[in-house]
Amino acid sequence: MSNDRVTLTDKQKKAQRSRSIALALALAAFVIIVYVGTWAKLGANILIRPM
Amino acid sequence: MGIRTVDTSGPDRPDENLSDYSKIEQMALVEKNASMDTSIGLSEASASDYVVLLKPRVMSLVVFTALVGLLAAPGHINPVLAGIAILCIAVGAGASGALNMWYDADIDAIMKRTAKRPIPAGRISREEVLTFGLLLSAFSVVTLGLFVNVLSAFLLAFTIFFYAVIYTMWLKRSTPQNIVIGGAAGSFPPMIGWAAVTNSVSMESIVLFMIIFLWTPPHFWALSLFMSDDYEKAKIPMMPNVMGPASTKFQILLYTLLVAPVAVLPWIMGFAGPVYGLFAVAMGVVFITYALRVWRAPVGKEMIKPAKKMFGFSILYLFGIYAVLLGEILVRKALLLAGA
Q1: CB of B124 within 8 Å of any CB in chain A?
Q2: Transmembrane residues, as ranges (chain A) (predicted)?
C-alpha cells in the first residue's frame, strides 16, 4: 500500500508549510477579532446573561 | 449572481488565444514526480500567491480612502470597531480582486502586465481562486454587519458585487465606458467608512465618492493611451482602441475639468478646512494643466510622454487630496482633545 502514497517534492512541502502557517495565523487573527470585537461592541453588557 | 463555471470555452474569450489558455489550464500546478498519480494535483502555491490575489496595491488605496471617510464622519466609533471596519473593507476589496482574477484569467494570460499573476502563471487553479474570493467576501460582509452596522455591510457587499459582476463580468469586455461605470466600485470605500460611523449615506460621503469616481477615467485612460496595444491584444474595449486616441484625450480633459472643482467641495461644504481647500485648488490646476498637455499632444508617439506624466500625477493627485484631508482631520481631532 505504501507505493500508493504521494511523495511531495521539496518545493511542494515548502509551499504547503507556507500555506499552513498563513491559514493558522488567519484563523488565530479571526478568533482574536471576534473576541475583542464582542467586548468592544457589547462592553459591560457582555456579562449580563439572563437565566 | 450569474457566476459561470470554470469552462474555458465561453463565447467571450478571445478565440485565437484559447489554445494558449487551455495550455495554462492544463499546466500542472506541481512538479510531477515518479510516484505520483497523474490525476492528483498538488499545489505549489505559497501564501504570498494568495496575497497577490488580493491585489495589495489596490487594497492599500482602499484602506487609505476608507480610513479618511471613517475619520471625516461626524460622531464617534469605538476604535476597536473602527479597526474591524477597516479590516473588513480591506478584505472585501481583496476578495473582489480575487474574483476579478478568477474571471479574467484568460485575458490576464495575454496581457504583459498581468501574465505573471498566480492563475495565468499556473500556480493556483481558477476553482481555488473562486472559492477563496467567495469565502473572503462572505466573511468580510458578515463580520462588518455583525460588529459595525448593516448599512456599511450592505455597501461592502454591493461594492464586491459591482466590481466582480457589473464591472469584471459585464462592462469590462463590452463597452469602452467600462472604467467610467466600473470606477464606482473603487469609489465606495470612503462612503463605507463614513457609513460605519454614522449609519447613513450623506452628501459629504457622496462628495468623497464623486472625487474618486470622476478621477478614475482620466487616470485609467491616461494609462490606456500608452498601454493600448496590451488591451487590444486582449480584446478589451478600452477608449483609445474603440473611439481613438483623439476622443480619449478630449474625454480625459473633460473628466479632469469635472474632478478638479468637485475635489474642492469638501472645503465649500465645510467638512474640510482652508488648507485642504487651497491644496485641492492648486492640485486641480496642475491636474488640468497635465490634461491640457495630453489633449494638445499630437496623436502618435508624441502623446505617450504627456500621457505617462498625466498618469503619474493622477496617482499623486488622489493620494495628495485624501492625505491632506486626513491630515487636517487628525489635527482638528488632536486640537479638540487638547482643548478637552
Answers
A1: no
A2: 21-42
Q: Is B27 helix (H, G, I), strand (E, B) or coil?
A: coil
- List the one residue out of B96, B123, B100 whose CA is nearest residue B25: B123
User: What is the span of the domain harbouring residue A37?
Assistant: 10-47
Tens-digit pLDDT profile for residues B202-224: 999 999 999 999 999 999 999 98
Q: What angle do CA A25, A30, A35 make, to 5 degrees?
A: 125
Pick the closest to residue B146 from B205, B81, B49 (CA basis): B81
- Distance, CA of B188 to CA of B161 (rounded, Å): 12
Q: How many residues does chain A have?
A: 51
In total, the C-beta contacts within 8 angstroms joining chain A to chain B are 59
User: What's the whole-model pTM score?
Assistant: 0.84
The tally of domains found in chain A comes to 1
C-alpha cell at B91: 478584505
Chain A residue set in contact with B, beta carbons under 8 Å: 3, 5-9, 11-12, 14-16, 18-19, 21-22, 30, 33-34, 36-37, 39-41
The pLDDT confidence band at residue B5, using thresholds 50, 70 and 90, is: very low
- The single residue listed with the C-alpha cell 489633449 is B295
Q: Which amino acid does the sequence have at B142? A: V
Contacts with A, B 91-120, CB within 8 Å: none
Check if B338 contacts A (Cβ < 8 Å): no
Torsion angle of alpha carbons B109, B114, B116, B121, nearest 10°?
-30
- The alpha carbon of residue B255 and the mean position of all alpha carbons in its chain are separated, in whole angstroms, by 18
**Residue B246 pLDDT exceeds 50:** yes
Closest CA to B46 of B129, B134, B118: B118
Cell (9 digits) for B182: 466600473
Q: What ipTM score was computed for the predicted complex, to two decimals?
A: 0.83
Do the domain assignments include residue A35? yes
Does residue A4 form part of some domain? no
